[in-house]
Amino acid sequence: MAWMFLLVAGVLEVVWAYFMKESHGFSRLWPSMITLVAMLASFGLLATAMRSLPLGTAYTVWTGIGAIGAFIVGIVFLGEQVSAMRIAAAVLIVSGLVLMKLASH
């Protein structure tokens, strides 16, 4: 169950990052509110997952999901640049996540 909490926490990290961008520096009310609620939920689920997962594994996976998710959302919804170097970096992050998962008990 901890892995499910961690997965949802990572997805919520992507949600809050996107809405933080959409808040324009917290100058727009609803994107700002969604950012704060998603942040609280993400941190809460991360904390719950850390009850049974090692800190290094949980935090690395959480930030990795957020990084890859934000990368994809940036490309798909915000028109950010796609390049071979950025894709290679994303592949390395995913490889690290897989290795962390395999290394955890």
TrEMBL record:
Q: Which SUPFAM superfamilies match?
A: Multidrug resistance efflux transporter EmrE
Where are the membrane-spanning stretches? 27-47, 59-78, 84-103
Q: Which InterPro entries match?
A: EmrE-like, Small_drug/metabolite_transptr, Small_multidrug_res
Q: Main localization of the protein?
A: membrane
In which domain of life is the source organism classified?
Bacteria
The record ties this protein, via Pfam families, to: Multi_Drug_Res
What is the annotated localization of this protein? Cell membrane
**Keywords for this entry?**
Cell membrane, Membrane, Transmembrane, Transmembrane helix, Transport
**According to its record, how does it sit in the membrane?**
Multi-pass membrane protein
Concerning its family, UniProt says: Belongs to the drug/metabolite transporter (DMT) superfamily. Small multidrug resistance (SMR) (TC 2.A.7.1) family. Gdx/SugE subfamily.
**What NCBIfam families does UniProt report for this protein, alphabetically?**
PRK11431.1 (NF008512)
Q: PANTHER family, from UniProt?
A: GUANIDINIUM EXPORTER, SMR FAMILY PROTON-DEPENDENT DRUG EFFLUX TRANSPORTER SUGE
Q: What is this protein called?
A: Guanidinium exporter
Query: Organism classification, top ranks?
Result: Bacteria, Pseudomonadati, Pseudomonadota, Betaproteobacteria, Neisseriales
State which gene encodes it.
sugE
